[in-house]
Structures are given as C-alpha cells and as structure tokens.
Amino acid sequence: MFSQTVEYALRAVVYLAADSSQPATTEQLAAVTKVPKAYLSKVLQGLVRAGILHSQRGIGGGMTLVKSPADLTILEVVQAVEPVARIRSCPLGLAWHGEHLCPLHRRMDDALALVEQALGSSTLAEVLAEPSRSKPLWDGDPSLAVVGTIQAALAAAPENEAGCMGLTPPQASSPPTP
C-alpha cells in the first residue's frame, strides 16, 4: 500500500526524531536507514519543501525536524511524500455514479479513511516511546539498544581524509543474553 519512497521518508524522520539534538547529514541518514544516498537526497529535498525538515548547509549542517516529534504525525510525513489518494468520485468515470460511490469504491475509500485516521493519530514520539522488543532502525546490536545512540556513535566517529564522518559499527564482544 505504501511506496518505497514513503518507507524511506519515514525511516529518515524516525531517525531524526530519535535524537534531534544535532543535524544529521544525508550521508549519515543514508548509512543508518540503509537507503541509497542519491535517492534519499531527493526524498529529503521533498520533505524540506513540504516543511517537515529544515536543511542547514555548511559545517555542522544537515537535516533537522521542523516540529518536535510529539507534534509530527506519521500522516504528515506520508502526505508530504505521497498523499493518500482518497476516492472522491467514481474511478471509472461513470456519470451515473458521480460523487455517489458504488459499494465497492465506498468500502475502499472507507479503508483509506481508516488509514488516514490511524496515521494521523500517531506521532513520531509515540512510535519511539512504544514498548516493543524491536525498535525502529535497531538491528539488535546491544551497544545500539537505543536508537539515539546511533546519532551519538556517528557524532563520535572520526573524520576521514575527505572530512566526512565515518562510522564503523561497534563490535559486540559476546552475543546478547535473552
């Protein structure tokens, strides 16, 4: 139901919501979200144009959320990238139906309305705070048990010769105990 572009946008904003203390570069976001950098760059530009993200150029720059995670809903992100296409009139163009949807298309539109309602009532802060065995963007590495520590690890990573931040994932000395 949701495109890969929507998925990528949600990954990026969830990451930014997890630790909004400093901007994240496109390179950092691409590495953590596992999205190709060139494609993610286009997605991020769309989120900036939609007013979801703020972009700061230069040293210390990067992407930040415009709103706090408690005020930003999943629906706002989805609508910024690929709006949910509600069915307002007969998709077949049948003049007799007009704006009076047949039972099939009414049910489909009702389902889309439920999706809008569910996503519109869920903020990024709620998603991150929800108790769950699995966390967004966390692969189970015990040293990265909190999504926000990913940001800290990136910030502490040494710069390479090109002046870019590099991240070498921490090596767990032993597997986590259940």
From TrEMBL:
PROSITE patterns tied to this protein: HTH_RRF2_2
A single GO molecular function term of this UniProt record: DNA-binding transcription factor activity
The UniProt entry, under InterPro entries, shows: Tscrpt_reg_Rrf2, WH-like_DNA-bd_sf, WH_DNA-bd_sf
Gene Ontology cellular-component terms for this entry are: cytosol
Instruction: Cite the NCBIfam families for this sequence.
Output: rrf2_super
The name this protein carries in UniProt is Transcriptional regulator, BadM/Rrf2 family
Recorded source organism is Pirellula staleyi (strain ATCC 27377 / DSM 6068 / ICPB 4128)
